Amino acid sequence: MIEGDPAGTFTVPSLLDAAGTRVRIRTARNLTEAERLLTDDVHCILLDLALPGPAGEDGDELATLRHVLRLAPRHAVLALTAEADAERAAEAVRVGAQDYLFRDELDGRQLSRAIRYAVERKRADTAQHKLAESRLRAQENARLERGLLPTPLLEGSNLRFASRYRPGRSRALLGGDFYDTVRTSDGTVHAMIGDVCGHGPDEAALGVELRIAWRALTFAGLCGDELLSTLQQVLEHERESEEIFATLCTVDIAPDGRRAGLCLAGHPSPLIARHGRAAQLLPYEDGGPALGLVPRARWPRRQVELGGSWSLMMYTDGLIEGRVGPPGSKQRLGQDGMVAMINRQLAAGLGGEDLLEAAVTEARDLNGGELTDDVALLLLDRG
């Protein structure tokens, strides 16, 4: 209770809480005393609006209330005033008080009910405010993550592009997997897919840094071992721990679309489906280690023939590490299982986004529930 009656003529009636326990009341005669008494076990403040305001704020009739609200933002506040000041009492509620009471009509039962109501309303207002802040942060994060997802730069290319991305983090749009596709001025199409170990927000941020670095280095003319060596330097500089590494697969497709260079850094090899033939994995021998594992490592670039009409699917291991078989089985889909699955879907006439969506859906169904790791798929079609 904060009231400035020097004669002490205003008294608070005896109060009981809902359980019948007597409510403890502390009394302060000014704002200085009130500040010392506002500990965490105080639930409600009864403020006499007739109390003089802080020095220098004499023109504001509610200066005292505003000061208390700043002083105790987590406490419920009840404004006490004379019946003749009903307009000021209503303004006090608009400013931030939970309710107002007239001194002349005050009794223990009415005050107990008003205090309980004020406390519950304050709790509800606080919870609503936190919920609104949480929703706003979620919307801002979603906009940020959407902005960080790549936009392929393939203008002038006859290749068709499709992608599917599903982060392992609950309610996230971005995980530790990353991919990108660009076409350089000489007509070469460069595609990349990678996976930072782990799938939290730090890994997602590192994945974005590596993707942006890859795009910049690719446009600068780097390719193969030189590009991956530079990316490893970026990873080593940006990672929070020396235990963090990233796998990567890069493909550079010649302007005529018939051949490509392939580099693997601890990453599974892409899958290719040529016209009239079953899908199979591209050669995966002679790959190099994941980025960040071996200092001054080397990553050989292997030349592969693609043919005239083909579909090339790049993916992260979140797709192939899902389990298959009866509940409790430890058997995983693996690359062979994935190749068989893709061939069934190709035989059913699926392609593009539909093929990628079907691949993720079937892998999830075989797993008996959501896949726990991030999953990224990238598909390039020619012919």
UniProtKB/TrEMBL annotation:
Residues 1-118 form the Response regulatory domain. Transmembrane segments: none annotated. InterPro entries: Bact_Sigma-Reg, CheY-like_superfamily, PPM-type-like_dom_sf, PPM-type_phosphatase-like_dom, Sig_transdc_resp-reg_receiver. The modification 4-aspartylphosphate is found at D48. Keywords: Hydrolase, Phosphoprotein. It comes from the Bacteria. Signal peptide: none annotated. It holds the Pfam family SpoIIE. Coiled coil: none annotated. The keyword Disulfide bond does not apply. This is Fused response regulator/phosphatase. It comes from Streptomyces enissocaesilis.
